[in-house]
Amino acid sequence: MKFYEKLQMLRREKGLSQEMLAEMLDVSRQAVSKWESGQTYPETDKLIAISNIFGVTLDSLVKDDEPLRRSEPQHGGCNAVPCGSWRRSYEYKSKRTAFGLPLVHINIGWGAKRAKGVVAIGNMARGIVAIGLLSAGLVSIGLLSAGLVSTGLLSLGLLLAVGTISVGTFAIGAVAIGIFALGAVAIGMFSTGALAVASHIAIGDHAYGHIAVGRIAEGVRTFITTPPGYNFSEIDANQVRAAIREEFPNMWNWIIRWMTVLFR
User: Fold this and answer.
1) Other residues' Cβ atoms within 10 Å of the Cβ of residue 90
2) Using 50, 70 and 90 to split pLDDT, how confident is the model at 88?
3) Average of pLDDT values for 89-102?
4) Which end of the chain is less crowded, N or C, counting CB atoms within 10 A of the terminal residue's CB?
C-alpha cells in the first residue's frame, strides 16, 4: 500500500473530511487532495504531524507496502482524539454571485475565519448582510458590528444602531450615543433615558439639556415630573412644544411631535 492510499484510508477511518484534515495541518484542502492522489508528497514536518494525528509510526506511514503500526500513546498525544479536532470548521461559498460577490459565504470555526459575500456569516464577516463576531455591512449583526443598520454588543450604525453600547444616527442601547438616543444612558442631540444628556432636548428620570424634562431636570427650560417613576403624563405636551418652538424655531415638526409623544 502506497503512502497516498494509507493517508486516504486513515482519514476516512477517523471520519475526517479533506477540509478538516487540512485545517488540522494548517494547509489547503487542495494540498491534501494532491497528497491523496499521489501528485505531491508532504514535507517532513507534515508527515510527523500526520503520524501523530492518526497514531501510527512514521516509518510504517511512509514506507511503501509496510503495514501500518500503531504508535505508543503519549501524554498529551493525539491518538484518542484527532489532534486539532477542536479546530474543526465549516465553509460554504455559493457559486452564484452578485456585485462580484458570492450570494452566500459561510466560514465559521476556530481562528480567523473570514466571510465575504452578499450574505456573509463568519467569525469576521463583510457583506450586504453580515453576521459574525466582527461584522461589517449594510445590515450588520455581531458581537462588534458596523453598518448602515447594525446590532451587537458594540454597535456602530450610520442610520440605526441597537446594542449594549450603540452609536448611530438613531441609537438604542444600554448606553446610546447618537443624534436620537434612547437608552439607560442616552447622550445626543435628542435623548430619552434614565440618564438623558442632550444638546437640544433631554427626557428622563435625570435630564440635562437645553430643554429638560424629568424628575431631576437641568437646562434653559425645564419641566419637572413628580415621583414615583416617570409621570410624563402629567406634563402638558402643548407647553413643551411651545417651549421647543421658542428655543428652536426651525426644528422640524416631526421631531417636536416625536419628542413629546409621552406627554398628555
Assistant:
1) 14
2) low
3) 82
4) C
b vs e for 114-123, b when ≥16 Cβ sit within 10 Å of the residue's Cβ? bbbbbbbbbb
187 has pLDDT over 90: yes
Between vectors from CA 103 to CA 97 and to CA 107, what angle results, nearest 5°? 120
With 0-12 / 13-18 / 19 or more C-beta atoms within 10 angstroms meaning exposed / middle / buried, residue 198 is buried
Q: Which domains does the chain have, with CATH numbers?
A: 3-87 (1.10.260.40), 89-148 (no CATH), 161-259 (no CATH)
What would the DSSP string read from start to end of 97-136? EETTEESEEEEEESS--EEEEEEEEEEEEEEEEEEEEEEE
pLDDT digits (tens, 9 = 90+) for 34-44: 999 999 999 98
Report the amino acid identity of residue 156. L
- Are 159 and 171 in contact by the 8 Å Cβ rule? The answer is no
The model's pTM is 0.63
Asked if 178 contacts 171 with a C-beta cutoff of 8 angstroms, the reply is: yes
* Span 97-117, pLDDT tens digits: 887 889 999 988 777 788 999
154, 148 contact by CB (below 8 A): no
Give exposure, 222-260, as e/b (b: 16+ Cβ within 10 Å): bbebeeeebebeebebeebbebbeeeeeebeeebbeebb
How distant, in Å, are the alpha carbons of 4, 48, 57, 58 from that of 42?
A: 10, 10, 16, 13
Indicate the angle between helix axes 29-37 and 18-25, nearest 10 degrees.
Answer: 110
Neighbours of 38 (CB within 10 A): 13
Count CB atoms within 10 A of the CB of residue 217: 22
Where are the extended beta strands (E) located within the chain? Answer: 89-93, 97-98, 101-102, 104-109, 114-208, 211-218, 221-224
How far apart are alpha carbons 263 and 247 in whole angstroms? Answer: 19
